[in-house]
Amino acid sequence: MNLAFKGIPEDGKPRLPGSLHVNRRLDRWLTFHADGRVTIRPGKVELGQGILTALAQISAEELDVALARIRVQAAATPESPDEAVTSGSLSVQESGMALRHACADARRIFVSVVAQRTGVPAEDIAVRDGDFLAPDGRVLGSYWAMAEAELLATEASPEATPKPAADRQVVGRSAPRLDLPDKVFGAARYVHDLRLPGMLHARVVRPPSRGAVLGELRDGPLPGDARVHRDGSFLAVVAAQEHHAEQAAERVARRAGWDERDTLPDDAALESWLRSAPSEPIEVASREAETPAPAHRIKASFYRPFLAHASIGTSCAVARWDGATMEIWTHSQGIFNLRADLTKALRLPAEAIVVRHMEGAGCYGHNGADDVALDAALVARANPGHPVRILWSRAEELGWSPFSPAMLVEVEAEADAGGTLQRWSQQGWSNGHSGRPGRGKDPTLLAASMLAEPFPVPLSINPPAAGGGGIQRNAVPPYRVPALDVRAHRLLEMPVRASALRGLGALVNVWAIESVMDEIATLAAEDPLAHRLRHLDDARARDVLSEAARMAGWATREKQEGRGFGLAVSRYKGTGAYCAAVAEIEAAERIFCRRLWLACDVGEAINPDGIANQVEGGAIQATSMCLMEAVRHDTRTVTSDAWERYPILRFSEVPQVEVTMVSRPEAPPLGAGECSLGPTIAAIANAIADALGVRVRHWPFTPDNLSRAM
Amino acid sequence: MVRFELNGAAVAPEIEEDATLLAALRGPLGLSGPRFGCGAEQCGACVVLLDGAPVFACTLPAAAATGRRVETVEGLGTPEAPHPLQRAFLELQAGQCGFCLSGILMAAAALLHRVPRPSEAQVREALDPHLCRCGAHNRIIRAVLRAAEEGVAA
Hints:
The complex is a heterodimer. Chain A is α+β, with helices and mostly antiparallel strands. Chain A folds into three domains: about 5-180, Aldehyde oxidase/xanthine dehydrogenase, molybdopterin binding domain (Aldehyde Oxidoreductase, domain 4, 2-Layer Sandwich), CATH 3.30.365.10; about 190-260 and about 310-400, Aldehyde Oxidoreductase, domain 4, CATH 3.30.365; about 270-305 and about 405-435 and about 470-710, 2-Layer Sandwich (Aldehyde Oxidoreductase, domain 4). In chain A, about 25% of the residues lie in helices and about 20% in strands. A seven-stranded mixed β-sheet of chain A has the order 9-10-7-17-14-15-16, sandwiched between helices. In chain A, strands 12-20-19-18-13 form a five-stranded mixed β-sheet, sandwiched between helices. The longest helix of chain A is centred in the N-terminal third of the chain and has 28 residues, at about 90-120. Chain A starts with a helix and ends with a helix. By secondary structure, chain B is of the alpha+beta class. In chain B, strands 2-1-5-3-4 form a five-stranded mixed β-sheet. Classes of the chains: A alpha+beta, B alpha+beta. At the A-B interface, helix 5, helix 6 and helix 14 of A face helix 2, helix 3, helix 4, helix 5 and helix 6 of B.
């Protein structure tokens, strides 16, 4: 379970770390094998972020076995603990801390059994790469020799004590990714590569616009053995050979007649739609204080359109229906949640659905992975006995996946004559940031609303503050301010499906907060670094900010024509990892980010190189998002459904990036995957202001949007 | 009939001549390395070498390969005998999700064959047709430069 989303249940049971609390059986998490291997079964999944490697390191550490002995089993509903969704930079906290405790407990159990059998006191027994050793060096047994003993058929005990930080050997050192060799040698590893006997290939024929209803479908020849599958307005083709399915989809698209209507605000009208659409209020934080008449006041609004996930691989799934059980292979972030929605959409009991995770292309949030699983299941049910593989087209991926919602943030801040903050109010408007499956009465899966017996499209929910919030994620400034009023507004109309994308509302909120902080510093003629440092009470935030500034040579930076430097800091979700960024940009015919310096504090770092990779990757992705990206649409459909209309950063445009980690091996791990995006975007915006004297208020930071701000 | 040399072996996949080379490679030839990303020559995930030069397999008709030499990442090296590029990508952990890597490795192999000691700017230029969404670009560039330093057998 996503503990930070739902909260730890008050079930009266002794508290266990992470998701071990709600998945208490040890044999659910790990199994020893007589051949000297150990399988761990996290419920979290590999998304390209390297989590399986970090979890293997944690397990090897507590078991005292070599890392090479660990096999990580991909999550599957029959065998794995239900850890809900792999999201929110929570996998080390939830799965890692569960495995740390479970493995420490397994070690304790085995050692105590060996002690009983041999008479050697448990506290005198050492474990060396899976062997149990007496003080004189005698081998008393091993995990492998006792693998059949079913010692793990029990609930975890709260008494297990993981190693103190100072004793850790495997964790805290960089380990090469377990999944990378397959990817470098082109081995079949992705769900896209799954080939099963008798497998058919299908393609979906999407409507030409949102809400379009399928009318007449003209007959005509199709290539190979291709045939049409229709259920209401859900239209697909299926064939033995993939290229026949692809060609058939093109032909059938030309033969389908659709009733279309306007369902979207035009993208030029989106900002005013955000302000005027009906909404429900969310109280975030408020504190009254008497404050002096302000010497400086900033009032500004920050607007961002819908953003796409824009993964390099398109969504893919394989489904097999044998008349009784539907088996699904998917790159979903949450296999149990997906199963919950499939039970609704397919009207099958949970016992009749098996969901198995296989890796997909990079996943940065709730993309089309769950949707394509239903697509495949629908076609598979009509073709019993045959596995059916569906691969989305690029147009489906960029046009029909859930999007990160368009968002508007308004800030009004006041400072005294010395530039000291007195009053801060902030309001955000957007759709809820989660349309993930498995959480509501109706399925959120794309095809569900297109069936002959359709389901309504559920309005996306907004993650609660306990889960880091959605619209309000990072909406509370980290700075000392006497009077505070922060609110969010969840819109009650949803023209396109909105859901979670890396960072959720933090990207816009941090951009807004850090821009306003810079502006106040400018009004008070104070350096942006000094201004922030004296408003920060959190020493860890000050440390990363000072470190990023040191790396970038902030104090000695030189003013050059057409170049600018900006900085920003944030603690992700207010409870997660700290990250500060300094950006150097060049303002030419458009804005180029040339260099980024990032300092982060993720608490205990399990795999430092993996964290550096995530922090840098997040920063480059954020650079792409804020400089180039916006979903385009007219009143009927998304028009940015090809790379040429949704361009992302290319190799020639990528900034140089330096990452430094502030080491805190004794501190709890905080998750690294999302911390760098908000600060990077804000640092780029501030660097643009430094170079051009223009405060950019519209995303992306293109010449058009800059000229609006002039 | 479609016939070509694939990673050093003669092949004759059973597929229509107007099918794409990518369909032939992933379909009857059973490869996984060349990947579908866009079908429009815009992302580079499908890139393979045709007579040593990078081509987009997602749009190239399979028949266009007839009588020619096709190389994919599967032919580059193996875990036992990795190509210097593959070794460098693993040493520098140059990748995240890895979906873009097959095409990038092939484009880099063609570059190093043509320019054994490229500058960083030349690497960026050669890889510019390739999209990476995870932000592994700088590691990838460093890995190509490291492979060049270590020397790639021509």
